[in-house]
């Protein structure tokens, strides 16, 4: 449209107005200085009026000065890396000679972390002692995440069991959580003297936190330890994985879409060919066979993430084991079906509120035959949890939630003489709340509490927890923690008697940590007091047993961990040592004694060496653990003798044939040490009044493994090194 | 009539003046960047980004400066802070332009900065994601020289690591150089150029 002469006056007005603005008639100067709290000037800070172009970068003296044509109340912002942004709303005419002090951002790596009791495996955390890949590249671990954790301080080597024994606690005192939701049956069931493995494949997780004491009020029903596994939020790419192993095979596939992804994995393990080639000390009727499948679906929403995980596995075996009281051996047969599903949604309600809701359901069924008697049990368990997190500021956060555990356990015993059916229903309701206070980059406190109500016992328990961390230097810090922990007796007791109370421990922990440039030193001392432990009056508990909560005990000691991947090029190694002094009165113990699953000294050395020219990673690990107690009935006393020390050196070699093909070889106990886990004594004395014994040795001294792993993806860069 | 012409002229300059606050800012920022004042440039891009909330270019360049300055950074604390800042700007840019190959390449470069920082720790973990980003960018814009160069450079590094032939990737770099020569900017202040750098990459990796 052409302006006509009639429009001229208004156009002129616009024109004049614009000229005025341009020539700066209404300009205001904003100036001042930006410093740290201690007065040190900050160079390079960005100072500007929000929503405008007006602003400037501070000079070497922290000074700034700029002009603006804005008038009235405006918001001035000053921001700089690693500091909290400063905001001020005022009339621009007031913005002169400003003295802006920026507060250090406590969301930085420099900030103290509460580390008492915690061992973390992740990539970016400062307290991380393990990396996710370590789970699969540690020589002795054989791809089992539990196996890798057994090289960390605070654990005891109980080679014939395979589960986690933490600081004088038995395996049942550790609970495992996936994405904050409890796993009720984390281990594949086995029998005497055959170590178990964790059920879940390690490559599902990208963060592992292993707490050996003093953990957050969010977690309950664990006397000694919690293991927190976080699943991957988003897979990297679409791919197909194929694994061929000396003990079986597996196939996996991942599909990705715009906002969602689906992965599935199946594996089949059969030890028959291996046992035919390398017979062990057991007489296998049906060597171990397992079929497993798992699937994960993830969907991203605008402000949240949904994850659904489901796994099914079945395993079976049958064997005759040597037994000193049974000349023909002990016949044992097991079939296990396990289904686990876990679904969770985590989302943001707004900038400062987050919530997470999730649940899990487990159905585990065992059909066991021992010497012709059948024991069939079925556990149905569920866990529901809702958690809220409110961030008042970077320095003050509140975390609270409620949860419910449900267990329905039924067991049926069938022998030629009798059939008995028994079990229990158990419900536990819990609520927890915790606050994080970060006073400065140097000083942080976490205070929390947890309340639990047990329907079965009609009992309420209250557990306070607290921890404090203080930074003593640029790279070092000290933290302390205290907490009360309650756990109900396990299924093996509850199935016979439900008139009991929760068991209790109290933890006191003092931790020192030094972290600098790929080196970490961690030292921790602790004292743990047990009370209300379950006692009964015969060796194997049953209906006729007299159950009570009369037991108690203690565990104390110190741990030491050193990891270094800087000093020697291409070599990463760690050392961990644990000293443990423990005694307890529980089960059918006549006196307080050190249990057979605890020992004084444990030392683990793990070395990984990457040889670039060979495209190979070679790993060694050595485990030393001092002797464990056993009772010798030929002499007075209880748990009065000790086995010789345990030693094992493992070796592995991963060779990258190309980006997508890996050849993997490993051997456990290379030097074939004859380890003895304990002794079994005859139940009756011989003619000379002597009880004969049999050494409990591993089924095989050594184990070999060969695998070929092939990943097919379109761009050809992924591989299964992290599946090994 | 003369008067009308005069007014018409001023109206035109006025309207171009209204745009030019953005243009002035962008010009100034590029000038600062060229004269080695990259942090000042980043600050200016940041200011433009919060004033021009629907334009992906200012946050893109603010992110790019933080990413580029992270290459070779040794201090993990600083590294993490810069990468986080870059990530925030990158997310802002992503929200404004969908499936933009330039943004995908920058995201790949952001991850590559970690691999350069500590290959042993981050290489294995981030490689598949980096490769996936280049793949996606290449599907969208197979003729974008920065996409072709970035992908070739990444592939060549991987192939060298595994002692595999690199010839085909050298051809890709040569192709990128041709594409750079023929490139027409897609819009005002859109990313462009990089031909000289491509020549340098070719020299270093393909030896002729």
Kindly summarize this structure in a few lines.
The complex is a heterodimer of chains A (724) and B (208). Chain A is mainly β. Helix content of chain A is 5%, strand content 56%.
Describe this structure in words.
- The complex is a heterodimer of chains A (724) and B (208).
- In chain A, 37% of the residues are buried.
- In chain A, β35 and β36 form a beta hairpin.
- Chain A is globular, with a radius of gyration of 31 Å.
- Chain A has a 22-stranded antiparallel barrel. In chain A, strands 9-8-12-13-10-11 form a 6-stranded mixed β-sheet, with no helix packed on it.
- Chain A has 5 helices and 39 strands.
- Chain A folds into 2 domains: 24-102, Immunoglobulin-like (Sandwich); 118-325 and 347-723, TonB-dependent receptor, beta-barrel domain (Maltoporin, Chain A).
- Chain B is mostly helical and 208 residues long.
- Chain B folds into 2 domains: 33-141, Alpha Horseshoe (Serine Threonine Protein Phosphatase 5, Tetratricopeptide repeat), CATH 1.25.40; 144-208, no CATH class.
- Chain B is 80% helix and 0% strand.
- In chain B, α7 packs parallel to α9 (195-206).
- The N and C termini of chain B lie far apart (65 Å).
- Chains A and B meet through α1 of A and α1, α2, α4 and α6 of B.
Please give a handful of descriptors for the protein shown.
heterodimer; A: 724 residues; mainly beta; Immunoglobulin-like; Maltoporin, Chain A; 22-stranded antiparallel β-barrel; 39 strands; B: 208 residues; mainly alpha; Serine Threonine Protein Phosphatase 5, Tetratricopeptide repeat; 80% helix; disordered N terminus
The third-level CATH topology of the largest domain in chain B is: Serine Threonine Protein Phosphatase 5, Tetratricopeptide repeat
CATH class of the largest domain in chain B: Mainly Alpha
Give the low-confidence spans of chain B.
1-17
Structural class of chain A: mainly beta
- Identify the overall geometry of chain A: globular
Number of strands of chain A: 39
Query: Largest inter-chain interface?
Result: A-B, 51 and 44 residues
Number of strands of chain B: 0
Number of helices of chain A: 5
């Amino acid at each position: 449209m052409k302006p006509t002469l009639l429009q001229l006056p208004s156009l002129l007005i616009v024109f004049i107005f614009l000229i005025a603005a341009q020539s700066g008639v209404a300009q205001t100067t904003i100036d001042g200085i930006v410093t740290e709290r201690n007065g040190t000037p900050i160079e390079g800070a960005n100072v500007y009026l929000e929503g405008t172009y007006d602003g400037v970068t501070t000079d070497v003296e922290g000074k700034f000065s700029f002009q603006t044509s804005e008038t009235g109340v405006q918001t001035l912002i000053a921001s700089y890396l690693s500091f909290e942004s400063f905001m001020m709303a005022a009339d621009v005419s007031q913005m002169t000679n400003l003295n802006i002090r920026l507060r250090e951002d406590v969301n930085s790596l420099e900030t103290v972390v509460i580390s008492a009791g915690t061992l973390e495996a992740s990539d970016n955390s400062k307290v991380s002692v393990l990396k996710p890949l370590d789970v699969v590249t540690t020589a002795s671990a054989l791809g089992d995440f539990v196996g890798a954790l057994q090289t960390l301080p605070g654990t005891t080597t109980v080679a014939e069991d395979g589960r986690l024994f933490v600081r004088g606690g038995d395996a049942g005192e550790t609970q495992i959580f996936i994405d904050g939701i409890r796993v009720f049956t984390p281990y594949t069931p086995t029998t005497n003297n055959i170590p178990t493995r964790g059920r879940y494949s390690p490559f599902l997780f990208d963060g592992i936190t292993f707490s050996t004491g003093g953990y957050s009020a969010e977690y309950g029903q664990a006397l000694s330890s919690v293991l927190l596994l976080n699943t991957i939020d988003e897979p990297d790419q679409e791919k197909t994985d194929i694994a061929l192993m000396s003990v079986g095979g597996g196939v996996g596939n991942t599909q990705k879409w715009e906002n969602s992804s689906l992965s599935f994995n199946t594996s089949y393990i059969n030890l028959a060919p291996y046992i035919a080639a390398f017979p062990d000390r057991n007489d296998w009727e049906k060597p171990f066979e397992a079929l497993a499948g798992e699937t994960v679906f993830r969907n991203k929403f605008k402000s949240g993430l949904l994850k659904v995980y489901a796994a099914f596995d079945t395993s079976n075996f049958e064997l005759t084991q040597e037994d000193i009281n049974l000349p023909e051996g002990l016949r044992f047969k097991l079939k296990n079906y396990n289904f686990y599903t876990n679904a969770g949604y985590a989302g943001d309600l707004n900038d400062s509120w987050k919530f997470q809701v999730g649940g899990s359901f487990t159905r585990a069924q065992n059909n066991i035959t021992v010497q012709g008697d059948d024991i069939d049990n079925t556990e149905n368990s569920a866990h529901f949890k809702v958690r809220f997190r409110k961030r008042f500021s970077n320095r003050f956060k509140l975390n609270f939630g409620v949860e419910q555990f449900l267990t329905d356990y039924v067991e049926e015993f069938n022998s030629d003489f009798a059939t008995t059916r028994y079990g229990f229903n158990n419900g536990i309701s819990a609520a927890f709340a915790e606050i994080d206070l970060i006073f400065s980059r140097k000083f942080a406190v976490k205070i929390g509490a947890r309340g639990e109500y047990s329907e079965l016992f009609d009992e309420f328990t209250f557990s306070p927890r607290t921890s404090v961390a203080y930074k003593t230097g640029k790279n070092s810090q000290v933290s302390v923690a205290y907490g009360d922990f309650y756990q109900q007796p396990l299924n093996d007791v509850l199935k016979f008697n439900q008139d009991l109370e929760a068991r209790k421990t109290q933890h006191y922990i003092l931790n020192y940590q030094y972290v600098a440039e790929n080196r970490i030193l961690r030292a921790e001392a602790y004292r743990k007091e047990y009370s209300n432990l379950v006692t009964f009056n015969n060796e194997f508990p049953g209906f006729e047993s007299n159950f009570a909560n009369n037991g108690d005990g203690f565990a104390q000691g110190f741990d030491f961990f050193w990891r270094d991947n800087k000093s020697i090029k291409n070599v990463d190694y760690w050392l961990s040592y644990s000293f443990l002094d423990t005694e307890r009165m529980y089960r059918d113990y006549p006196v307080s004694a050190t249990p057979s699953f605890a020992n004084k000294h444990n030392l683990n050395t793990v070395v990984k060496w990457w040889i670039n020219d060979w495209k190979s990673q070679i790993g060694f690990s050595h485990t030393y653990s001092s002797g464990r107690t056993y009772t010798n009935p030929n002499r007075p006393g209880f748990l009065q003798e000790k086995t010789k020390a345990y030693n094992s050196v493992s070796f592995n070699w991963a060779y990258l044939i190309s980006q997508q093909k890996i050849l993997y070889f490993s051997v456990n106990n290379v030097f074939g040490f004859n380890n003895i886990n304990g002794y079994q004594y005859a139940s009756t004395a011989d003619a000379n009044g002597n009880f004969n014994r049999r050494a409990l040795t591993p089924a095989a001294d050594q184990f070999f493994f060969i695998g070929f792993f092939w990943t097919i993806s379109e761009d050809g860069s992924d591989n299964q090194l992290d599946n090994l | 009539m003369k008067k009308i012409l005069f007014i018409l002229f001023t109206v035109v300059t006025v309207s171009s003046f209204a745009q030019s606050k953005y243009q002035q800012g962008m010009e100034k920022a590029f000038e600062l960047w060229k004269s080695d004042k990259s942090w000042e440039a980043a600050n200016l891009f940041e200011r433009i980004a919060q004033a021009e909330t629907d334009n992906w270019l200012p946050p893109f360049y603010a992110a790019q400066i933080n990413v580029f300055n992270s290459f070779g950074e040794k201090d993990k604390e600083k590294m993490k802070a810069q990468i986080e800042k870059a990530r925030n700007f990158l997310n802002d840019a992503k929200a404004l332009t969908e499936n933009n190959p330039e943004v995908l390449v920058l995201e790949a470069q952001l991850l590559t900065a970690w691999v350069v920082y500590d290959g042993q720790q981050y290489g294995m973990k981030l490689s598949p994601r980096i490769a996936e980003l280049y793949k996606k960018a290449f599907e969208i814009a197979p003729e974008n020289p920065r996409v072709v160069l970035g992908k070739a450079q990444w592939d060549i590094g991987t192939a060298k690591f595994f002692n595999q032939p690199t010839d085909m990737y050298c051809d890709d770099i040569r192709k990128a150089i041709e594409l750079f020569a023929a490139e027409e900017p897609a819009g005002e202040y859109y990313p462009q150029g990089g031909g000289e750098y491509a020549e340098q990459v070719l020299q270093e990796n393909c030896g002729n």
